[in-house]
Design a protein that fits this description.
The structure is a single chain. 7% of the residues are buried. The protein is an all-alpha fold. The protein is elongated, with a radius of gyration of 13 Å. The chain has one domain: 434 Repressor (Amino-terminal Domain) (Orthogonal Bundle). The protein has four helices and no strands.
């Protein structure tokens, strides 16, 4: 699952929020957010804003390919 697919899943889990609603909550235009979704290119700061808009926080982890466990 890529980042955009994950964001879309989170939108559904948070009550079927639309892209327009998420754009408003993150302080950007719907068109700008739609472009980012289409490109699937995200800055960490953008993901942090999306997480906050969804009432969550962002965690980024590297996961070992063999054990499927986080590398710490």
């Amino acid at each position: 699952m890529n980042t955009t697919e994950y964001i879309r899943l989170c939108l559904v889990k948070r009550g079927n929020l639309s892209v327009a609603e998420l754009a408003e909550k993150t302080g950007q235009t719907r068109q700008n957010l739609s472009n980012k979704i289409q490109r699937n290119e995200w800055k960490q700061s953008e993901l942090e804003k999306i997480a906050a808009a969804l009432g969550a926080h962002l965690e980024i982890k590297f996961i070992d390919n063999e054990t499927n466990e986080p590398i710490i």
